[in-house]
Amino acid sequence: MIWDLLLLGITLCYLVNLYFSWHKNYWLRKGFPFVEPLFFFGNIRDVVLMRKTIGQAYKEIYEKLGSKPLGGFFKLREPILMLKHPDLIRKVLVDEFESFQSNDIHVRRDANPLLKLNPLLASGAKWRSMKSLWSPHWDKALVSQSTMVRNVSQKMVSFLKSTSGEYIEGKELSRKFVSDVIASWAIGVELDSFHNPNVAFRIMSDRIVNRNFKSTSLFSWLFTLRIYQIYSNSG
Q1: I want to staple 127 with a disulfide (CB 3.0 to 4.6 A). Which of 111, 122, 199, 203 is the partner?
Q2: How would you classify the pairing of strands 78-83 and 70-75?
Q3: What are the TM regions of this chain, as residue ranges (predicted)?
């Protein structure tokens, strides 16, 4: 009995290793350069372990690809193609934009009626219909948004001049800038977090981004759901 269980365990380990070895050669079989993935994590281990942000992980992948115009990597076991050359990026974002309708943001749009109205969360045919609806309004929106960003930038410059010679933490300065821009654009409220750091909006936004037991537990739960989604869809 023990030998049977041992043999079964060895066989399962071999099959799992064989599967992941075959899967990680996905880009090799297609002839694309790629960054060597890790077992289970792909190329985002530090993101899963909350050591780095997804932006930092992507930056490292970008640098590892060197001078190559494009390259592949894995987000868990999901193959992702990263474009680097400007001509390829323009091809996707301009010339063939209608052909790229997938969305990397995975949410249950049926769970919240408001999410159904967000074009940033749409994919496929739904995205195309919403794009045709929103496109005429985007130019006007960009003009108003640029004005908001400029106003917040002027407040930041004024704040920096008033603290000349003093130590300023860049991360905190960036968070104040982003908070003011989001508040101005999303809810039409001028915060001026540079001179009033204890406004309620700032405090609430800090609770979202600061890591603690509650936020880490929530991230782990959402991450588990995402893993289930990926592996169930590929099964």
Answers
A1: 122
A2: antiparallel
A3: 6-22
pLDDT digit string (tens) for 120-174? 667 777 777 777 776 666 666 666 677 888 888 898 888 888 887 788 888 888 8
For residue 112, give Cα distances in angstroms to 107, 115, 226: 10, 6, 18
Same domain (yes/no): 142, 95: no
CB atoms within 10 A of CB 78: 16
Q: Rounded CA gap, 18 and 39, in Å?
A: 11
- 225 φ, ψ to 5°? -65, -40
6 and 92 assigned to the same domain: yes
Domain count, the chain: 2
Per the prediction, the chain carries an average pLDDT of: 76
Strand ranges (DSSP E) for the chain? 70-75, 78-83
Give SS3 for 94.
Answer: helix
How buried is residue 234: exposed, middle or buried, by Cβ count under 10 Å (0-12/13-18/19+)? exposed
Place of tokens 């997804």: 54
Domain extent, residue 13, equals: 1-100
pTM above threshold 0.70 = no
